[in-house]
């Protein structure tokens, strides 16, 4: 159960991502609502928070007819059922088929699924297939075998679906970067020695106090080129982003993760400069409020520090939490952005 102040903040914002985590009981009217209920906000002194509808009913309250808070559990069951169907299917499933399976209209199910996962059913399916493809490319002897093992109908469908996403050819991914050129440089910054590496699609590594060996471990078959002239412009942009944190959305990145990791990374890039979020808020933002530990792990799996600002995530209560490159660097980054 969240703290009362967190519940009240979520209720005031009518934040749908908190639906199912608690209900708001209004003592003056005798009803309980989901956090996103569109009804006018009651006075704070008349509100009590409960873990679920059963607890609210035990206190003598009844469900709001406007927001139907008890339907949240039904939504959760529908989403879990759809995810299981998507994972079990050999081919992508149509929205209409998933909706029929769960008893919702297609439009309503699309909203329910997107609210719960942060992705539409079709986007979730594509991300799952891409994740399977990346895993299969590391295990299968043949690229074509890996593509079919991931559930694609053929190589053309794989390349079409993943154009610009993997950042390098599937065969190169399977071979540790074989045939790919990665430009890199180590530069001194106010935060210490910084490693920056990029493919022709964008920055694939930004870290501190690491050297060439980190790239060799990740891409053992890639051609690593240090300090090439045509890399200098991108490198200068990255240095500026670190020394004077601001709007760096224009800097291209080339990263790959699981569907959940990439959802977390997208939310990290949405946190405005000078602001922070807790790990719980980050989990809620991607539609997985109970996956706080998983959100923390995805946060730590970020390959391009600063550009994906994982330093903006702190513990509930204000503690800095963890940071791969040390809390001193995290503290300095936050201080820079606060100015």
Q: How much β-strand is present in the residues? A: 5-15%
**CATH architecture heading of the largest domain:** Orthogonal Bundle
Order of helices and strands: HEEEHEHHHHHHHEEEHEHHEHHEH
Based on DSSP secondary structure assignment, what is the total number of beta strands?
Answer: 10
Derived from helix and strand composition plus strand pairing, the structural class reads alpha/beta
**Highest CATH level, the class of the largest domain:** Mainly Alpha
Give the overall shape, derived from the CA principal axes: flat
Q: How large is the count of helical segments?
A: 15
Give the tally of structural domains: 4
CATH domain fold name of the largest domain: Arc Repressor Mutant, subunit A
- Main beta-sheet strand count, sense and barrel state: 4 strands, mixed
Q: Could you report the average pLDDT, rounded to the nearest whole number?
A: 81
Report the helical percentage: 40-55%
What does this structure look like?
The protein is of the alpha/beta class and 339 residues long. The protein folds into four domains: 4-63, DNA Methylphosphotriester Repair Domain (3-Layer(aba) Sandwich); 70-173, Arc Repressor Mutant, subunit A; 181-236, Double Stranded RNA Binding Domain (2-Layer Sandwich), CATH 3.30.160; 259-338, Orthogonal Bundle (Arc Repressor Mutant, subunit A), CATH 1.10.10.10. It is built from 15 helices and ten strands. It has helices at residues 4-12, 53-58, 71-88, 95-102, 106-117, 121-139, 143-149, 155-162, 170-174, 212-218, 232-243, 259-270, 279-285, 292-300, 327-338; strands at residues 23-26, 31-33, 47-50, 62-63, 181-189, 192-198, 203-208, 223-226, 277-278, 313-314. The strands form three sheets. It has a four-stranded mixed beta sheet. β6 and β7 (203-208) form a beta hairpin. α3 (71-88) packs across α4 (95-102) and α4 (95-102) crosses α5 (106-117). The longest helix is centred in the middle third of the chain and has 19 residues, at 121-139. It is flat. The mean pLDDT is 81.
């Amino acid at each position: 159960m969240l703290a009362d102040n967190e519940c009240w903040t979520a209720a005031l914002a009518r934040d749908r991502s908190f639906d199912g985590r608690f209900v708001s009981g209004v003592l003056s009217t005798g009803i309980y609502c989901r956090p996103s209920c569109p009804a006018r906000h009651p006075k704070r002194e008349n509100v009590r928070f409960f873990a679920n509808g059963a607890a609210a009913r035990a206190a003598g309250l009844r469900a709001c007819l406007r927001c139907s808070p008890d339907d949240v559990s039904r939504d959760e069951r529908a989403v879990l059922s759809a995810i299981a169907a998507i994972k079990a299917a050999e081919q992508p499933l149509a929205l209409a088929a998933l909706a029929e399976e769960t008893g919702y209209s297609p439009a309503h199910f699309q909203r329910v699924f997107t609210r719960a996962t942060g992705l539409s059913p079709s986007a979730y399916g594509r991300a799952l297939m891409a994740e399977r493809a990346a895993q299969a490319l590391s295990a299968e002897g043949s690229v074509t075998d890996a593509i079919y093992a991931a559930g694609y109908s053929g190589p053309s469908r794989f390349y079409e679906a993943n154009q610009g996403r993997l950042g390098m050819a599937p065969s190169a991914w399977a071979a540790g970067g074989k045939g790919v050129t990665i430009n890199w440089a180590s530069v001194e910054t106010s935060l210490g020695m910084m490693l920056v590496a990029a493919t022709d699609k964008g920055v694939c590594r930004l870290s501190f106090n690491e050297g060439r060996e980190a790239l060799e471990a990740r891409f053992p078959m890639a051609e690593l080129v240090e300090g090439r002239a045509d890399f200098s412009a991108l490198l200068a942009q990255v240095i500026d982003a670190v020394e004077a944190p601001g709007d760096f959305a224009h800097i291209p990145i080339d990263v790959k993760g699981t569907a959940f990791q990439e959802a977390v990374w997208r939310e990290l890039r949405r946190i405005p400069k000078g602001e922070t979020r807790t790990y719980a808020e980050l989990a809620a933002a991607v539609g997985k409020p109970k996956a706080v530990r998983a959100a923390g792990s995805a946060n730590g799996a970020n390959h391009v520090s600063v550009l994906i600002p994982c330093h903006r995530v702190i513990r509930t209560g204000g503690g800095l939490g963890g940071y791969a490159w040390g809390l001193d660097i995290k503290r300095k980054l936050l201080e820079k952005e606060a100015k």
